[in-house]
Amino acid sequence: MANSASAPKPRRLSRRDSSLGDKIFDICNYVLLTCLMIVTLYPFLNTLAVSLNAASDSIKGGIHLLPRDFSLENYKYVFRENTIFTATTISVLRTVIGTIVTVFASAMVAYTISRPEYVLRKFITIAFIITMYINGGLIPNYLLIRDLGLINNFWVYILPGIIGVFNLIIIRSFIEQLPESVIESARIDGAGDFRTFFNIVFPLCLPVLATVALFTAVYQWNSWFDVFLYNSSNVELSTLQYELQKILQNSNTTSSAESAFANSANGSAIKVSPLSIRATMTIVAAVPMIIIYPFLQKYFVKGMTVGGVKG
Amino acid sequence: MEKNTALAASTMTPKPQPTGLRLFLKRLVQQRMLVLMSVPFVVWLFIFKYVPVWGWTIAFQDYQPALPFKDQKWVGFHHFDALFSEDRFLIALRNTLAMSGINLVLGFVTAITLALLLNEVRKVAFKRVVQTVSYLPHFISWVVAAGIIQTTLAPDGIINELLKWFGAIDKGQEYLFLGKAEWFWGIFGASSVWKDVGWNTIVYLAAITSIDPAQYEAAEMDGAGRLRRMWYITLPGIRPVIIVLLIMNIGYLLESGFEPQYLLGNGMNVDYSENIDIFVLKYGLQQFNFPLATAAGMFKTVVSFVLLFSANHLAKRMGQDRLF
């Protein structure tokens, strides 16, 4: 959508376009936008450079865009720890399972509330929409999860968030735009509601479901608060984001001077420092998103404009 | 609720039909497949979204975790009185309002400006690159963002280095940015802009595409330059979208976010970083004062509800049905 926005106006070939004022404007605009790109990208590249630099050298500071003393030692160290392997597995598992469950369940419920003849249609729609406005809040939710026995349980990552109202509404709108004849003809062939949904409607909804899947996957991958709240006493259920959060929390309390000292106390053969570990973990936690995102950008943008304001 | 639907169905059907409830049940049986596909998720919704609202009763009790519900002692609005005479809560409320206010103003101004600038770029490839780069931080978690921000603001981070380079500070005078409490709101605002400014342009760029190109041509005939066309055509063209988004965002005034404040907050800036959500977390799950924390959470939800509802109503009256 935003990509097609790149040609909002037909090309104007008047004389004024090449006037001096326009040229100055263009130059300023390009400079400003280039600055924006630098400000956006520099912190990422800097973190990457620190993660690829030998820890003993990074402490001296002054690393910018390129590693000064290239080394993969930080990554080796991070992945030598068993917890990071477990955490990666759990992160991947919750992302995959959470996305599949959310997409399937949201599509199914959206289908039922898109059927005009369904007697519970209005009741279900309203019941979902009310939850957009009212939620119990942290403490009652915590007590509920505890009473359900979901503390220290993998399913606490999946169950509480199966269906989001926003997803439900955009899928329903999409289904309602499908030609009714498609569903009718399935009915005439004798398909029940589930078969109509699964064989006909679900495949036709793939464009909007792709968007929902992507948003869900990003949400699942990036979550750490539920780990902190419910599963923090079980390392086996930790995720990459939560492991990174723990590192940040630690480095928040110790100043970098102290940590440098703590390391130099270990003798001259220091391999790692909190600074380097933090940078390395940041990259490990961020890289999957950064890699897949440019390829899937158009689906994300579509999702924003499907549910967003019509201009 | 089901009875209401049944009633509605019965009033709509002519007299000779079976009674409302029986008709309703008959149709329910006919539509058992749809029921089977949706009702389990209604049960899920009830458990995970409605049962916690019942937990609000804790805010009115002298809650003892070990006791069953019927044995709890009711104390009326006692915890709310305590809440509003609690200094930490008032500070948290101030911080919440300040940070969401900053976010609102800064977020809008920067996103609209960037959208206008992007719209003026004629090299399609350059525009795509800027868009891809500026959307990027939206997809990383706040944990990763906080890691990056901490590195950037560290005493040996790039900001301090730039300040030294410009001669604003000398070596050894590096700022501990996250240790300066009164700077926290600014750091929070800048971080939020860094993370989301690109992403927030999407809606505006989509709105700009619907502006009639003839308007630009006419303005050009009249001799309007680029800046004037931006100011007199593009900006008024997206005004309805701006107004609706503004109204909607006012509905989220008490939702200043949780993650950035929690992740960037520390003992030194707590007086400026602690918002209502963090207050609830601290009092509830770290000090186990469930009633007070529930009261704070309930206050937030109720005020948000009123704000959101009025905002939606207002947005609807302005002719835009963003939300149902």
Automatic annotation (TrEMBL), chain A:
Q: What range(s) does the ABC transmembrane type-1 domain occupy?
A: 88-296
**Where's it mainly located?**
membrane
Q: How does it sit in the membrane?
A: Multi-pass membrane protein
Which GO biological process annotations does it have?
transmembrane transport
Q: List, alphabetically, the Gene3D superfamilies matched.
A: MetI-like
Q: Where in the cell is it found?
A: Cell membrane
Q: Mind telling me which residue stretches traverse the membrane in this protein?
A: 24-45, 84-111, 123-142, 154-175, 196-221, 275-296
**Record's keyword terms, sorted:** Cell membrane, Membrane, Transmembrane, Transmembrane helix, Transport
The domain of life for this entry's organism is: Bacteria
What is the protein's given name? Carbohydrate ABC transporter permease
Source organism of this protein record: Cohnella thailandensis
Automatic annotation (TrEMBL), chain B:
Q: Which GO terms describe its biological process?
A: transmembrane transport
Q: Name the PROSITE patterns on file.
A: ABC_TM1 (PS50928)
Residue ranges spanning the membrane: these are 33-51, 97-118, 231-254, 290-315
Q: Which GO terms describe its cellular component?
A: plasma membrane
Location comes to:
Cell membrane; Membrane
Q: How does it sit in the membrane?
A: Multi-pass membrane protein
> Keywords, A to Z?
Membrane, Transmembrane, Transmembrane helix, Transport
The yes or no answer to whether the keyword Transport is present is yes
**InterPro entries reported for this sequence:** MetI-like, MetI-like_sf
Domain ABC transmembrane type-1: from-to ranges = 93-311
Residues in coiled coil: none
The highest taxon in the source lineage is Bacteria
Q: Does the keyword Lipid biosynthesis apply?
A: no
Q: Which family does it belong to?
A: Belongs to the binding-protein-dependent transport system permease family.
Q: What is this protein called?
A: Sugar ABC transporter permease
Q: Which organism is it from?
A: Cohnella thailandensis
